[in-house]
Each structure stands twice: as C-alpha cells, then as structure tokens.
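@channel sequence for tomorrow's demo:
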Amino acid sequence: MKPLRLIAIWTFFGTVAVHAAPCPTPGGCDPALVGRRSLDALRISGAPPVIDGRLDEPVWSQAPVATGFIQSKPRPGAEASLRSEARVLVDAEAIYVGLTYFDPEPAKILTPLARRDDETVSDWAFVEIDSRHDRRSAFSFGVNPRGVQVDGLWTDDTVYDSSWNAVWEAAAHADARGWTAEFRIPFSQLAFSLPPDGGDLVWGINFYRNSPARGESSNWSPRYSGLGGLVSRFNDLRLPAPARVHRFEMTPYTAPRVGNDGPAGTRKSSNQAGADLRVGLGSSFSLTATLLPDFGQVEADPSQVNLTAFELFQTEQRPFFLEGIDVFRMSTGLAFATRETSFADESPFYSRRVGRAPRGDLPPGTAVAAIPTATELLGALKLSGQTAAGWTLGVFAAETDREQALLDRPDGSRLAWPVEARSTATVARAVRSFGHGDSSFGLFAADLHRSGLGPVLASQEVSDAAALGAEIQHRFDEGRYEVRSWALGSRLTGDEEAIARVAESPSHYFQRPDAQGLPRPPYGTSLAGIAAETRLSRVAGSLLWNLTARAVSPGFDVNELGFQRNADWLLLAGSWQYQSFRPGHRIRAWSVGSSDLGSGWTWSGEPRARVLDAWISIDTGNYWNAKLAATREASTLSTAWLRGGPALLLPPRTTLALSLATDQRKASYGTLDVSAGEEPASGSRSLRVTPLVNLRVSEKLQGSMGITWESDTVGWQPVGSDGTETRVARLRQQTLSLTFRADLTLTPRLALQAYLQPFSSLGRYDAYQRLAAPRDPDPGRRFVLLEPGTPVASPDAAQRSLNGDLVLRWEYHPGSFLTAVWNHQRDTLSLDARATAESGLTRLFGDPPVNVLLVKVSRRFGG
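structure tokens (generated this afternoon):
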C-alpha cells in the first residue's frame, strides 16, 4: 500500500475519533482536578523562613494549600494515590515554596546522593513557574530528599531543556510521614514584567512529584499522555508583585592551562581571564554578556565515523550558549529520515557555528606548524525580556576573531596564513502568545557578517549571510488539534568563487550533470532561497497523528548560522501513535504507530524518498520495556549519493530495530539496542549492537558502561573519479567503541566525574566499479566492474582514538565554582594488513598521548 494512502487512512480514523475524551484512564478523569485551578501566595513581612526543608515556621501553616494532585502514571488522569500539599510564600526579594509529600512507607523513599543537575533515579519534588505567563515557557526547579538540586526550562509548551541554570536555594527533610522540600527562588532569577499599577501578578504554576518505588508520578496541573499541551495547562498562582527587582550579577574568572598540545607535542601553557555579566534593564528585560569566555571545561565530542557527504550534528555543551538560549530558537526540525538524509536537527540557528573550527584552505607545498582548533570568541551578549503587550523578545550577538595558521615552507621559512575572517553574528527573535497559550506568532532574523576577508578568504567564505522567518501555531477543538506553519527566506552574498563553493556543496550539488531546473555556473555573487512547512496534528487523546508538508527551494541555505542538510525538497510526511494503559496487568501499557512515513521529490518532480515504517512498544508489569520497529524504503533517486555526480537510482532497503530496557525506576538498570538493515540489490547490509549497564555502586558512587559494535557493508560506496568516470567500491567497515562514565558525589555541590571512550574503526574497499547507467531499472547494469589491472587509489583506513576527561566541580559559594579538568586524548590514523577493530583498541595505549590540565575559578557577585 502506498505511504500516502496509509497516511490518508490514519488521518481519517484520527478525525473520526476526535470527540473521544482526552482521558486514557478507564472510568474517566475528575473534572475538578483536570480543570484550571488557582492558588494564592501569602505575603510575609517579617523574617523569611529558614531553608532547611522542615516547614516548621508558623507562617507555612497560614498559607493556602494546593492539593489534589493528578497522576501522570501509572493511571494517567486519575487522582494521585499519595497525598501531596503545596504552599507558596512571597516577600520583597523571593518566592518561597513548601512541598509536603506524604508516604505511608517512608522506608521506600529513594534518597541517592548525586551531583547538582543530575536527575538520577530518586524521589523528586519540583516547582515549575511560568512567570512570563505566556503559556509557552516555564522555569523548573527540583530537589530530591538529599538536597540535590536540578533546574531547567520548558519551551514551546512541551520541550524541556535541562541545560539552564539559576542561583537559588532548596533543602529537604524526611520523617515518619514522608518528606518535605523547601525552596527559595529569587525574583532576579525569573523573567516577568511588573504590573504598571503595582497590583498582583498572575503566573502559571505546577508542582510535580516522582515516587519511583511506587511507580507513580503526579502533578498539581494536569500532565499526562494523550493530553495536549503542558505549560499551557499550568494552574494559576496569584501573588503580590514586588516593588522592584534587582538584577545584577558579575562573575569574573581565571583559567590557567597547561598541556603538551603545542606544535609537535611540545609543552604549551596559558592563563585566560574573562567575565560574565547579567544586568536587569527595568523590570522586564535583562542583558547577559560574556567577555573572552572560557569553554575548556566541556566534555569532548564522542568519536564517530561519517561516511556520508554531510556534516554530523553535535550537541552544544558550552555553558554560555546553553543558558537562556531558548528565547532565540525557532524549531524547524522534523522526525523524518531516509538513507543519508535526516531533517531532525534542522534549525536556522545552530549555536556551535559561533566559535567553530576555522575552515580556510591551506596552500600546497607547506607543512602545518600550528593551526587553531577553534575560532576565538571575543565576546557575546544576550538581551531578552517581555514587553507590556506580551511579546517575548531576544537579541543575541557575538564577535569572533580572525585566525591564522603557521605554515613551514620547503625553504625553512615560516608563513602566517589566514584560515578564518573576523565575523559578527546576530540573531533576533520575537514571540507572542494568545488565547491561554493555544495560539502564538513568532518572528526570526539572523545575520552573519565577515570583515577583512582579503584575497585568500574572499574566494572561500561568503561575506554576508541572512535569514528571515515567521511562524504561527494554533490549537483548536478544545486543544485536541494543532496547526503550525513556518516560513524562512535566506540570502548569501560574496565573491563568485565563494558562492560556487556553497552551490556545489553536499546540501545543493548544483553541478550534477543531469540536474533539472538548477542554475548553471557561473552562479553569480548571491544565492537565495525559501523554505516553508505546514503541519496538522492531533495532540490529545489515545490516537495521535500528524501530517506535514514541507518545501525547501534549491537555493535555500542557512548553514552559516544554522544547521541544514537538505535543499531542493518537496516532502509530504506523517506519523501516528495509538496508546493504551492497563495498570495492574502483566502488560502495563502498550502503544503502536509509525514515526517515519513519507514521500519526497525534488522541485523538478524527481522522486527522492518513499518511506514506510511501523513499531510496537510494550511496558510490562515489572516496568521492563520492549520496542520493535521495521522500516521499508522503496527504490528512489538520490541526488547526493555520487557526490555531485548524476542522480543514482537506489534499490529498496529494509531495516529492523529492537530495544530492550529493564526497570529504569531502579538505580541500576540495563538497556540493549540492536538494529539490522539490508539492501540486497547493492549487496549492502548493516548490524549495530549497543548494550549499556548503569550501576549504582553506593549512595555516592554511580557509573555506566556502554559498548557499540557495528558492522557495515556498503555495496556502492563512492570513491571519487579518475577525471572521466565516477567510481564506487564495496566497503566493509567495522567499528567498536566503549564508553565509561563514573560520578563520585561527595556532597551535592562537590563531585568528581570521569569519562572515557576508546574507539576503533577499520574500513577496507574492494570490488571497484565504474558508473554505467545510474537510472537503469536493473540494479546490475548501473555499475560495471573495472577491468583487472585497472589502477585504483585504495582509500582503506583504520582509525583509533581515546578521549578521556576527569572533572572536579565544586560550588564553593552559590553560583561560584572551582573546576579542574584533566583531558587525555590519543588519535591515530593508520592501516595494518592484519588489523581489526578489536586489535585497534589494544594498540591505543601505545599511541602518543595529548594531556591538558585546566583549572578554572569563578566568583559570582550580586544577586
């Protein structure tokens, strides 16, 4: 059956079922609990409560009480079986929250010790505050019974970002009745506008409880599977507004560094200093700036093998770019993938572009004496806040420096060669919510300007890149349906050679000899394009689905400040999911669906993708989980497989995947992921096995070990051209990597972390072929074996690496840290005729090491 026909059928059934009540628990949900409720905060004028977790001050008993929590699991929508109470106090400087979580079996309360921001398996108490009251964003603060603090952000109503950090206090105490948690959250850490008349504020609020031993989580605001929205469902908190809010924080730092990562392994030392600054601008806006930020304490990116023509997406790990960057994000990702193509990470703003590794080419006939691995970030700022009309605004700007490589000429002289120009990046975002969060409208703009390109870099990098976009979202029919649309336009300008580099890059491949409707060289001094998407979704009920239409013109490109793999696409995609909950049964819950359905074409109508998948997931009564998925990709044209050559008709491919997980409520658990794929017509096949074990050794020590073993055979792997013909070969690739992590937590504010990843990969090529008829219906006639004796340049290679970090983190004062990092790396590219992926790991410790020691001390001033 055609994928589009299946999508239409499932859309029809979703429409028929629209009037089913969004309550998955048999017997229905209590309207008094599911409906919006409110709580009044009590103003205190005397001494504030001591944050010790005991709630024994008289003022706590005088505050109004919120109770009647609703289960998220195991019975979604039912009243919680464990009684919980919440109270809120307010003074001129902060908001205070007291949570009382009763438990008839307090011995079963899980109380592990963990480092800050490690939301490990434990009982947890959270307060979540929508202080902007835009029904789309919220600040989350959590604490466990040992006083371990975690925090994060909710964005776009349902997206959680655990990277955000704030300076606040919390404590907890367990007794014979259960346990209590006490919070002090300064107003300076929240974003909100003061009312012009000095009256009361109305915020959205939720209190969350997790009890792993019971298998129960509950909330004061309704949050459960099958209920559309999350922040938009928060109940209301009424509180007296403070007279003013003081927002001023300054955090200077110093970071001495020493290592043997200089030229030819020589010793290299330095001492960097800088500062972060946060200032309140009136009652509604704040300015965050950083001068010469240090990013040396972040964990190394994991080693990966990339055989595609496209860049790998790497997650952001730098603190300045993690904290508060949600205001600037415009989500354009889509859960659709086929062969080399994935839309999951698409975004017009990808913060790792700022300070990325230099990309300038080096002249021939020279040897590299030293080359920077990153572009120095001179400074950056973020301005964000909310207007009286309800608009949330944000402006981000960053300045990076010019970079040069040191090269040795054959005559012994040394040359400074430019590899990156000075650049200024700017991103602006504006979002406005309507109708209690059911509707929103947003604008996005981004610009990158490079100065001082000079004759060398002008031919390699564009001088200016701009993107402009808008989005709109609306929920209707009592929140059961959602429609979301966005559109973006992009424009690049620069020298003809620089524009040609972009036009002939893997995202575009304008140079394809059989391309229809694409520009031909010369491409001029600019490149422009558009992208747009509309998505209709059912977001509430047991049956959920979405149908998405996306168009990306051939010239659209936001890669200078964003992340983009795909241009020249017309795509119709969809997904669906049906879920059933059966508490108390051997099968506790099950769900079935499809997450990767769709068909795609180029703008000229050539078929680029036809994908059909299905999966089933089962949760057992002992809280184990199993998921089985199957994907079928039909024969379609790939415009990128031959790396700028003609489009190739790829044969059908089938993939199976199995995932198993033991009871993850427990401190120690295991997971297993297995996937296998086969493409018979090309002789391609793959197998990937990834087991992982997470162990809680003691209340202070936990760790994990994961293994990834992968075996791939690619029948038609491109190996370049001899100038007259395109060639492919059969690639046999084996990869083995191990990942070790360990956390030793001495106190919630003092922890030692270790990370180690040995990695080995080996690839061998044979069965060399030349391209004959790329679109022939018979796969056997698309390529012809090279005649015996034909010279070929073998790309056989073996890579092995070792990445390790040992990190000591001590928060010696709220918001002030001492961090010591030892980084150890070994990286070798070689080939032995008898080598295997396994033997590569055993030879790692004979490779030359690179060791770097960094100590960073920061001190926060202000509040």
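heads up for whoever presents: Residues 1-21 have pLDDT under 50 and may be disordered.
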